[in-house]
Please model this.
Amino acid sequence: MLGHVKLQMKTCSYGNKKLPPSRLTIFNAGMGFGTNARKTTTPKKTCNCGSPLIYTDCCSKLIDANQLPSTAEQLMRSRFTAYARGNWKYILETTHPDELASSPTYAEDVVATADKVSYQTLKVLTTEDGSTPNEAFVTFKVGFKVRKQLGQRSQGFHMQSMTEHSRFLKDEVTGRWLYREAVSTK
Model:
């Protein structure tokens, strides 16, 4: 009797599809004659924020281990990762109290967004210092897909994007950067 045989390859052509080198491809051999081999891929291990580091060495330190981000960009990247992973609690914890108070449904809107939007890509366009050392601005572009969307877009073929210019403030007491507001979006 043959057991499962796993062959690990960095890249592979499968049918007409070329698998990306960033994914590990595993072929499981069948259990004998008449059983088809199956192809499975392991999930991408790099952090959602676009860093080449794995999640546990990158944004997890901020999201799961409660380390303070040293810059507004670091906070913005970790917030993107939290959105991508559906961690709405981290989003709310890193939002400035004035922003939370700006809308009576702010928390519900964040939860709904984390549930409905699948964040795919992040590109930081610019970072700028503000008028004080406790203020900074980050402009970034995100690629996303909307889950449970009706019509042609629901088939997952359409990546949408949004560019945002955000303002971040550093709490003078705790030293923690917080998201204050979207200055502009398009």
Remarks:
- Residues 6-41 form one domain.
- The chain has two domains: 6-41, 55-185.
- Residues 1-31, 37-42 have pLDDT under 50 and may be disordered.
